[in-house]
Amino acid sequence: MPKYEIMFIVKATIEADLVKKTAENYKKLVESLKDKVIEFKELGEKKLAYPIKKEINGYYFVMQINANSDTIAEFDRKIRLDENVLRHLIIRLDEE
């Protein structure tokens, strides 16, 4: 199964509980689709390089997962609809 790395930025202007809940929901989404989360890191609040949707700070999260393309498509669809997520990036890691 391919290995992916997903990074996403959650708004810093929402409540801290909601930030954590948003991140956990995406971790649970991958697990609910029968795929495996290898590593999940909260990198904390950081200043953005440039304002995104009038936000200047964001909470960064990175996770590595083993997943199939259907899971990645569903994850991408759901994260695009979430107004609390400023940006996300999905990278397929090369098999070595």
Structure report:
Helices cover 31% and strands 49% of the residues. It is built from 2 helices and 4 strands. The chain has a 4-stranded antiparallel β-sheet with strand order 2-3-1-4. Strand 2 and strand 3 (55-66) form a beta hairpin. The mean pLDDT is 93.
What would you say about this model in short?
β2 and β3 form a beta hairpin.
Draw up the topology in text.
Layout: E1 3-11, H1 16-32, E2 36-52, E3 55-66, H2 69-81, E4 85-93
Antiparallel strand pairs: 1-3, 1-4, 2-3
Any idea how many domains?
1
Return the average pLDDT rounded to an integer: 93
Task: Output the radius of gyration.
Answer: 13 Å
Number of helices: 2
The name of the CATH architecture is 2-Layer Sandwich
CATH topology: Alpha-Beta Plaits
Order of strands across the main sheet: 2-3-1-4
Helix content: 25-40%
CATH class: Alpha Beta
